[in-house]
Design a protein that fits this description.
Blueprint: E1 2-8, H1 15-22, E2 28-33, E3 44-55, E4 61-66, H2 75-81, E5 86-92, H3 98-108, H4 110-115, E6 117-123, H5 133-142, E7 149-151, H6 157-171
Parallel strand pairs: 1-4, 1-5, 5-6, 6-7
Antiparallel strand pairs: 2-3, 3-4
Helix pairs in contact: 1-6
GO molecular function: GTP binding; hydrolase activity
Protein name: Signal recognition particle receptor subunit beta, a GTPase
Family: Belongs to the GPN-loop GTPase family.
Length: 177
């Protein structure tokens, strides 16, 4: 059995890093040199997708697709979300307005969010503690959504695993952690 998950979020939120942290195969990356405001954050950025795979018990394969973070590549967001059973939305707490980023991505994936499982991972809270997780929950409530929000480090396999376990428990509440 094979399933697909999509990772989305703004530039620098940790999508590529998260997929690399959890993937059982070498991640396929489509990086290119940054040429716009992205260059202020990092030298290279995803322009099409990242791809990794996680092998689960019983021969189940979880295909992991990371979207580009730049809005100019948003046409890829819908393409990569097709056939996905869930969305991992990563938000960088160090960005100028991470709550606006949260809203932008949830609005962009609105039709997907209404029908599928979604979990929010907030990265870089160790560098910038505000807004706190309560602010994210308040923003989600304002949007009429009740989604799990976890603080996480995209470099830590255990953090990505926890995020995926929460997502999987939404998909199948009978799963044991």
């Amino acid at each position: 059995m094979e399933h697909k998950l999509t990772f989305a979020g703004p530039v620098g939120a940790g999508k590529t890093t998260a997929i690399e942290s959890i993937s059982d195969i070498e991640v396929v990356r489509t990086d290119a040199g940054a040429t716009d405001d992205t260059l202020l954050r990092k030298a290279r950025t995803t322009v099409a997708m990242d791809y990794g795979m996680l092998n689960l018990e019983g021969g189940v394969k979880l295909h992991l697709y990371g979207t580009p973070g730049q809005e100019r590549f948003s046409f890829m967001w819908d393409i990569l979300a097709q056939g996905s059973i869930g969305l991992v939305l990563l938000v960088d707490n160090c960005r100028e307005d991470p709550l606006a980023d949260l809203e932008l991505y949830l609005d962009s994936f609105n039709s997907f969010v209404q029908k599928n499982a979604v979990v929010v991972g907030v990265t870089r809270m160790d560098i910038e503690g505000r807004p706190g997780l309560n602010a994210y929950h308040s923003k989600l409530a304002e949007m009429g959504l009740n989604l799990p929000v976890l603080e996480m480090d995209a470099r830590e396999r255990s953090d990505i695993k926890a995020l995926l376990l929460v997502l999987m428990s939404i998909l199948d509440p009978t799963l044991k952690r």
